[in-house]
Each structure stands twice: as structure tokens, then as C-alpha cells.
């Protein structure tokens, strides 16, 4: 499991939302949230590099890229998987049968969010997670896998798939999506960790969402209501 990261030198310490802060991760769902250029991908790439994942894939590769900055990463020797959404945009993260059952998941971005079932099958073949204690969870580092994805696919990913994945794996996910904010868990079963890399960014996003809903409610016509599912 990855417990924390702290940057010591280089351009990450110059980022206002990153600096020399020590970011701590829980054993289930961790969301790295912020606008473009705030440091989300830098954090995840550094975690992947420190874990031996190289530019993508499993930590068993033992590929440790040389980074142009330094950071302390506190972790153990458990398996880590890194998915960079920009590395192979044609790779899907949702199983084909799942896509067939959801006809609106058709764009490259929406297919890339997926193959969660395929990834789970691969992990289960490698690591008998059902025999592992919660404290021995493998880690999945997922960098903006909901990038360029429609609202329906985001809702499925954050509302359904993340909950299932978090029962077996530590998740560290970067995103622009508002869904992990709306669906954030904070109870005895699951406490999500939210790392926001920009001051007031969460409140700004929530305000704009409320404004959009208010506008829709004020301007929809009776015909719009009849056509709504």
C-alpha cells in the first residue's frame, strides 16, 4: 500500500497546490482533484515511478524512471498497477460485454475508462486478493481514466465500479469529474480521501453545478418534461 508522498525539489514544489506538503493516502479510495496544471498527473506518475511501474503496467516490471525532481514516497512492497490514460488511448478499461450492454458507451474516451472487469480478472489471476487482509491490498493508480468521457459513463464509473474495486484494492485516482465529490463516502465502511490541489476548486465546481441545474429547471418547457425519462 502507498501511504504518502512529499516532494523535496524541482518544479512540483513550485506548484501552489503541491509545494512541500505531505499527502497521505487511505487504504481504499483516494481522489486527487484539481484543474489542469495543478499537479495531479505529476503526483500519480511519481507514485508509479517509485513503485517500479515505469510508464504503465505492473510494478513487477521493476522499472524506475529517472525523474527531474525528488520526492519521498512511503509505501510497502505490495503490487501496484499504473494506468496512464494518455499512454494508450485505444485501450479500454471496461469489458466488451459490459460495453455491449450499455449502448451509449461508444467513444474512445468512454471505452478507455473501462475494462474494469478484465483488469479485475487479471489481478485475481496474479494475486488471490480474497485471501489478503485489508491492510495488504494491491494498489491501482489511475490517471484521469474518465478524461473526455460522457456524463453517463462517469456516473457508472464513480457510482458503481469504484465501490466494487475499493472492496479489494487501494485506489489512487486523479480526475476533473464532479462525481467523486457528489458521491464521496464518509462512513464506517468507507472513508474516501479527497486531495484538492487548488483553493476553493471544489466549492467553485459545486456552485457552477448548482447554477446549471437552476438554469435548467427555470428554462425547461412542458415538452422537455414530457420527454424526460
Structure, explained:
There is one protein chain. The chain is α/β, with parallel strands linked by helices and 229 residues long. Strand 7, helix 5 (151-165) and strand 8 (170-175) form a beta-alpha-beta unit. Strands 4-6-7-8-3-9 form a 6-stranded mixed beta sheet, with helices on one face. It has a 3-stranded antiparallel beta sheet with strand order 2-1-5, covered by helices on one side. The chain is 34% helix and 19% strand.
- Count of alpha and pi helical runs: 8
Termini separation (Å)? 43 Å
Percentage of β-strand residues: 15-25%
Going by helix content, strand content and strand pairing, the class is: alpha/beta
**SSE topology string:** EEEHEEEHHHEHEHEHH
> What is the mean predicted local confidence, pLDDT?
80
Radius of gyration: 18 Å
Shape: globular
Low-pLDDT residue spans: 88-95, 109-115
E-strand count: 9
Strand order of the largest sheet: 4-6-7-8-3-9
Biggest sheet: strands, sense, closure?
6 strands, mixed
Helix content, binned percent: 25-40%
Describe how the helices and strands are arranged.
Blueprint: E1 2-9, E2 22-24, E3 29-33, H1 40-51, E4 57-58, E5 70-75, E6 80-84, H2 96-101, H3 108-112, H4 116-126, E7 139-143, H5 151-165, E8 170-175, H6 179-182, E9 193-196, H7 201-219, H8 222-227
